[in-house]
Design brief:
Number of helices of chain A: 16
Number of domains of chain A: 2
Strand content of chain A: 5-15%
Oligomer: homotrimer
Domain Amidohydrolase-related (chains A, B, C): 216-375
CATH class of the largest domain in chain A: Alpha Beta
Shape of chain A: globular
Largest interface: A-B, 34 and 39 residues
Order of helices and strands of chain A: HEHHHHEHEHHEHHEHEHEHHEHH
GO molecular function (chains A, B, C): hydrolase activity
Protein name (chains A, B, C): Amidohydrolase
Helix content of chain A: 40-55%
Organism (chains A, B, C): Mycobacterium angelicum
Pfam families (chains A, B, C): Amidohydro_2
Strand order of the largest sheet of chain A: 1-2-3-4-5-6-7-8
CATH topology of the largest domain in chain A: TIM Barrel
Number of strands of chain A: 8
Radius of gyration of chain A: 21 Å
């Protein structure tokens, strides 16, 4: 927690400080050195261009949160200024930073979406540096792109790659949000259409899947596996049309999705809609990753909105950390801070008991994720 | 109110505790015994299937609110655990529970939407058990379904049934939200189209109206009556497409709706859009029913959002209670709690005077509803 | 600030009380006397008809805020009742009221959208009465309507009028939101299409531009100038379809908008979406005008939501005052009150340092606007 003194801390505050997290959606941390420009650009998610000259990645909720929370991990005072933060950070290698921040996060397991290429930690390195368990989440569009390059029949190749990777992986993920969004038909396409679309796509080079038939095919193959399917929803970079990622556009898809857990990631600014879906469907879950980091001091307001219609057994934690190792840690720090702020108020107002609040913390921190990914406890 | 002591209570708090409510949209309470599964399922609104094995209706904002507020009506401590709550509840018949909870709500009048079939209290029983007045709200789609089964011309039958029922009823209601949503043409259809659509529908059996022409016909007949027309907006079960119930999709309809009061029910997550419409049209009102119950500890945040653009003479109260008698009571308890939280903060911050806050409580609690439904005061 | 005592005031509170504002979007104040009905109607933005008999413009967040904040400027106690407020106000001429309220606002510069006709102050009078600097913002649809009435080629006339007015003007504004909304193609139309559309429009009389081709032409001419382009977004009167003014519908337009600053005005209820766009595009800014006035006691919640994803160098202040001189003042009073409430909580919770909060106040109050409109400081 961020409070100065521990003596007068409530049982809820103590519990939140100590609770171990399953971070159910992360990517890798940087391994190679970079300049301050790279770092500041990594504090802006939505922009796909470098920040303007007049701007600074530090002048945002995320930037302020880095200076508040991450500074302490590096032995700096809170709210340290950007220049001091950058200088201190520069005294460490990215690997050292990763070790520091990953271990400070209080995360017992990482679920690692390996679908982003780049010079970042792989699964084994993440495991080593953090000293925690880690398991893979397989990106469906990457499987499709591998299948497009594989010999033989597309469907057979897709299935073979997916099944091979799912021997150790614990779930799948789709970035349909970035490949045209959620509007339109998301039913399972007939085999003949799939074959035809695959042929057309292979003829075009078979890279960066945007074909709706093949995107739909991938989703339904994932449903069939029964393992949790994560969907990018809402907030991300401007390559996706944010309004086409409103999760209510998934209603028809969800109505036919059976029992496979579907986890709606990020969700901002549609977290209230996502919470509704988590109440409406036994197999739908909501997550707070990415949003909590970028909202900083406003993360408590977001977490409160996520606690509106979503049943408490349907909410999971993630950081969605990628790039600067700060983000893997900061997600946890801001979640702990925010959930304490929100549940602490519910308790202070008499709306909830402290015991209930502690139990809900456990559900979101690890119990719900452990149940849907079938982990043993702890 | 939820505060422990009454001595130091503000005039605002005392007023809110005691103010009598017009609950302008409810359904019936259960009359027949049921098991715990029925009870827990009734705590989830959006899901149309039974809750999953791993889930519990108690683990939601509504479930926590039942354990906090309703427990006290049954002589249990606040935050009593689900098992104890269930056992205590089981010591009463549903009729006894209804008598207890209805009388505890502090409601002087119930406006009863009789359009849901099921083994629940009728209007007379609601009146008897609560000891309060009650009047009917007529569901237009039910009138249509009755007209489809009646002999003779559909339009004549619809009008005759509607006018007969409106002799004692105080308003109408439409669930257009569940029958295709608000998108598209909502103008009054020409007589020939109505006749043709009615014939087609009767030929198909004349049940569960979904024909847009006949839905539009019903709405415009209701407008003609001049009595308030309630519209289901937003939050409900997943049979409706939530994004097709955004009340902004009603703009063209509202522009041609004349002076008939139109009450937007529930509204979540579109309460800010609904508040805008209440400012934009002299005849549009917003309501908080259903949402307040399901939001529990987050109901104050919802009520605060409802107090953004909506003029204070355009906001009304309801619980939308249906099934467990707890919900008729809990709506009132959470509204009292929430409006105190919100207006108390406006007063504490100096933004509002306490006298103004008390007057706004009266407007929302009963004055606005008394005006539009033409009740004498009290 | 609204707090009673100054002695214990924080440095942040003192800074906010004293900070001078650039009000980057206003209109004129009334000059001619009017009755109470005119005044009350001016407290409702969304309704295009006179308020109903049963209603009062005072019974709204804006009405309560007038009685709280503006009463003090007129020497009345806070929360003075509507009748007393009206009587006191009636003792002054509109010119006297303008002098009082404009000077009380603490605004160093006004950016004046001259596109609304009516018996209100012009630029010179606003400057005189306020004792502050003022510069024009040119409404593109007005330029188009002037060009339609001008002799010769439409494009040449449009360009000549625009360039002549932009010699002294500091930016442009579009009310595309009111002329069909943001949906659909917003690319630059080919010259032949523009010529044809202009001819058709001139043949029809050339008033109230709604032609999409010519609206698009105007936007792209404005982009070419490089001076800031203000766009009406969200909240306004019911002549616009609110859901068609969701700023996410501008995504494709923004993707091709280059470096010209684009300022999203008002934004309610899409302020979170607007904040996302301010993060996603180096040239996009968000503004709080109109909304802050109409939200009154709920303005802090709005300002907090505006501080979610929007980078702090991308947020600007305006009142959008028009008509009653109260509104030019009240925007500033509510912004000071609200930003203090929000940033004060960030500081109290330890999320932000006070020094950072003070710096962000300066950015929003004037630094960001000074940068994009190229003013010298102060």
């Amino acid at each position: 927690m961020t409070g100065p003194a521990a003596t007068a801390e409530s049982a809820l505050a103590q519990h939140i400080s100590a609770v171990s997290l399953i971070d159910q959606h992360v990517h890798g941390c940087w391994l190679t050195p970079g300049d301050r420009r790279r770092f500041e650009n990594a504090l802006n998610e939505a922009n796909t261009e470098p920040l303007a000259e007049f701007d600074s990645g530090f002048d945002s909720q995320l930037g302020f949160a880095v200076r508040n929370h991450c500074s302490q991990v590096l032995g700096l005072p809170r709210h340290t200024d950007p220049q001091d933060y950058w200088q201190r950070r520069s005294q460490f290698s990215e690997v050292e930073l990763a070790r520091l921040f990953l271990r400070a996060a209080g995360v017992s397991r990482w679920l690692f979406d390996t679908g982003i290429a780049g010079d970042t930690t792989d699964l084994a390195t993440l495991r080593d540096l953090s000293g925690s368990r880690a398991a893979e989440v397989v990106r469906l569009e990457q499987v499709a792109e591998q299948a497009a390059q594989a010999p033989g029949d597309y469907v057979t190749a897709f299935d073979a790659i997916l099944r091979r990777r799912m021997v150790t992986a614990v779930g799948t993920k789709s970035i349909l949000a970035y490949r045209g969004g959620f509007e339109g038909d998301l039913t399972e396409p007939p085999a003949a259409q799939v074959a035809e679309a695959a042929q057309r796509w292979r003829d075009d080079g078979g890279t960066r899947l945007r074909d709706r038939v093949l995107l739909r095919f991938g989703l339904h193959q994932a449903l069939r596996l029964g393992k949790p399917l994560q969907l990018h929803v809402g907030f991300g970079d401007r390559d996706c049309d944010l309004h086409r990622t409103n999760p209510l556009l998934l209603l028809d898809f969800l109505r036919q999705s059976g029992d496979t857990p579907i986890v709606l990631l990020h969700c901002y600014p549609y977290e209230r809609e996502a919470g509704y879906l988590a109440q409406a469907f036994n197999n739908v879950y909501v997550d707070c990753g990415l949003s909590v980091n970028h909202l900083g001091a406003r993360a408590p307001a977001f977490l409160a909105r996520l606690l509106e219609l979503a049943p408490f057994r349907k909410i999971v934690y993630s950081s969605d950390g990628f790039g600067p190792a700060e983000l893997h840690y900061l997600g946890a720090a801001l979640w702990r801070n925010g959930i304490h702020r929100v549940l602490g108020e519910f308790v202070a107002s008499g709306d909830w008991s402290e015991g209930d609040a502690i139990r809900v913390v456990d559900l979101i921190a690890h119990d719900n994720a452990a149940r849907i990914y079938a982990f043993d406890s702890g």
